[in-house]
């Protein structure tokens, strides 16, 4: 018997297509959204110290200003809240209006808000921060839409054999976005530092922050619009995916015409066969139906909870970075540097971390995901993250004594290598493969939004939790917490839970999208008068 996508010639042609130029075009066009996303979300962490110096310095104090805890949380976190809302809204819209039309909206929103956030003005520091937060929320909203749409478009364009690697390559552009954020900040801060030399804060409180420093963070944020603008034209030229046109819009003729052009081969439109397929009883259930719960309920629970737990650990890394950098003397005490010197040092440290720990993990996933499968990579990733987190937590006192911090950095880098060569990549890929076409973008958006909820907990819950248990030793403005060591134990436990919940998620390696979602199987069953429904993800033999 035929396997899952063979019912319609247009879907079979996509599944069996050799890797061609259009695949790489799709990776770059979809990947640029992620490049921009990573750049925008990441570069704010590089300039928060500078914002504190410019807007909150009291020159009568011995140390330069820093953002108050509530302002720091808002500036860093408001984009996450926007992303969560954008993932749900644009995920739903992508299934209603089509991937392509919504894709252009998200990109324009990212461009406009990147520029606007760099032009945040106000008469008071609070006014500037409020304007910045407003535009960063809407920037996040646009970025949120890119998650379900990029993943869905790439999965629907890809062939069966290398689909995992293609979706992983789109996601891996995040690594380059992080790297670009670090390099751009390095170059701009170095140029301004050379043009406007300034003394260290302890030598001259007033002149250590030159007035021109205010341009630095604005230029860095505005440049986030560049990669998105460059790909806008190509996004608009991409045809709608054949799976959406055929299975959701029910237009076999248009799907065949679009894919004949893309694949440069003649494809027959099979409207009758398509009508048979999409009107099958089992191909019409909605997201909140009992049928969806029976077929895909556990899958959605699996993809959402694993992404949620992964992001708690992944985004908590910000906690340890400043401690690590200070302990290994990559970043000296704030009062020994001028404002631009500090930005330069922070971006240099972050760029090195990205180069060594972040980027390689993504590309290991690209290389191996279609060889060993999603399930094995996700299990291995969660397991190794648990091991390394415990390796940091149990002998925590040992790591913090002078002379041992290099070991700490190595353990820390391995934790995040296995996040990227592991659940950080697979939790993005799998939801784009296992749900029906008419609900694919929505389900991916729900899974991604669960992840962002975890990110908010990881980045902010732990910012408070990791404070010293002795209030007098906690950072200025923060209450006492449970300490870094106990926080690491909590993170190890969340990784272990992620390992267990991975067993709810099916393996999609080498199977067509229709085979995973059960769409083609059911149409064939109905065609021969059979009402028996196979569990989703099984093959026809």
From TrEMBL:
Per UniProt, the keywords (alphabetical) are: Membrane, Phosphate transport, Symport, Transmembrane, Transmembrane helix, Transport
Q: What is this protein called?
A: H(+)/Pi cotransporter
Where is this chain compositionally biased, Acidic residues type?
516-527
According to its UniProt record, where is this protein located?
A: Membrane
Source organism's superkingdom? Eukaryota
- What family is reported? Belongs to the major facilitator superfamily. Phosphate:H(+) symporter (TC 2.A.1.9) family.
**InterPro entries assigned to the protein according to its UniProt record, in alphabetical order:** MFS_dom, MFS_sugar_transport-like, MFS_trans_sf, Phos_permease
State a GO cellular component annotated for this protein: membrane
**Classification via NCBIfam families:** 2A0109
Q: How does it sit in the membrane?
A: Multi-pass membrane protein
Pfam families listed in its UniProt record: Sugar_tr
Alphabetized GO MF terms: phosphate transmembrane transporter activity; symporter activity
TM ranges: 21-47, 67-90, 102-121, 166-195, 215-234, 352-369, 375-394, 406-425, 445-466, 487-506
Signal peptide range = none
Region: Disordered; residue ranges are 514-541
Q: What sequence ranges are listed for the domain Major facilitator superfamily (MFS) profile? A: 26-510
What is a biological process (GO) this protein takes part in?
A: phosphate ion transport
